[in-house]
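I trust your eye. Have a critical look at both lines of this record:
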Amino acid sequence: MGGTVRDVQSKGELDSVIKEGSAGILHFWASWCEASKQMDQVFSHLSTDFPNAHFLRIEAEEQPEISEAYSVSAVPYFVFFKDGKTVDTLEGADPSSLANKVAKAAGHITPGEPAAPASLGMAAGPSILETVKELNKQNGSSQAEIQVPPVLTDGLKKRLQQLIDSHAVMLFMKGTPEEPKCGFSRKVVQILNEEKVKFGSFDILLDSEVREGLKKFSNWPTFPQLYCKGELLGGSDIATAMHESGELKEVFRDHGVGIYDSNDAKLTKPNVGQGGVSESTGLSAALTARLETLVNTSPVMLFMKGKPDEPKCGFSRKVVDILKQEKVKFGTFDILTDEEVRQGLKVYSNWSSYPQLYIKGELIGGSDIVLEMQKSGELEKVLVEKGITGKETLDDQLKRLTTDSPVMLFMKGTPDAPRCGFSSKVVEALRNEGVDFGSFDILSDEEVRQGLKAFSNWPTYPQLYYKGELIGGCDIVMELRNNGELKSTLSE
């Protein structure tokens, strides 16, 4: 130890240090965060005052497995461990608290006497302390404001979705393709160049709102993040594995991503398979019989990466979500668990990527086709024709719509663009109370607009529902808000 800070490179390395039982402190930081940089100087100086403790530094975004294990959602963040267990944590730029907690964890604290002034006075020096104090003053608190993830407002969600959809292949990275700012971003750029696909990119170091918002929006805590046709493929590790296995090329081909031919500077469109069972597959009789059994295991059968509760790719997640929205019971097979099935089904179906959706033993297609069929209403029609579901009545549709979200608002317009003052007031009330809610624009569907009046026995709009039960219109919502009862009513 001896008063040095050690950069941790893997979770295994960290686990072995913690198992020793000695006292130690983890500093989760990020190179783009000024608060992290300043607190790292304090951290380094404290390591001199407490040479018998482990001082370990972890770049949060570069070590997602460790960050997730310690539930790190903001930086700077400190974890204190002793005797193989976590004994304390600290979030934010607070040098005094850091010194006190370090001394307490390291066991060098005199009862009743704060450690911070002594240790920081000896080691840190006034210039660093003043810098951190000024940083705190600017942010108005002991935590750097840069660390607070932004609220995912409808406006931010729309902006993120527009960025993701701006190119067929979109990379959110540190730096630019010509000048990457981290090795992982550089690796993915290199892979995309080797795949010869055109791609868009966004430098997340230039926009903290996008950087922090996208982590929450995509449920993926690190960068880079690679998207194809609006769906998250993953980060550097996943992109590398897919590239090395040839799967990335298949994904691009099956989703119509053109390949750039550097020799003649032309963008060539891939030949996308049309599905269907090949007449002569070349598969063994035993494997063919097994695949036939699997695709007929359930009337609706999805071959995917992972499980419905834990999809391992964005395309699989999308199809699972669609089937759940259609309220269809379906069977699944995780193709990551069986290489023979994974490779054999590509030949059997003449469809080279996953997921693959089958209805009554017939291939429907992958995520793009399933999504288009849902948008056009064709998927619902096929499910009805195949006897999987019955035709949805208006009452069934209204019951489904009122329970689409725990809190559901039927309004004129959208939350970002209300079309009447009453709808606008209810949206404002819900947002001010911090209530998450779904919405339906009744101006977009005359059948729903008129049908819901009879269904709810409430003649006007907006109408607010909680868990399928009508709360009321604008006047009732305002009354609940004024009485301080709105949030509690919508969270019982």
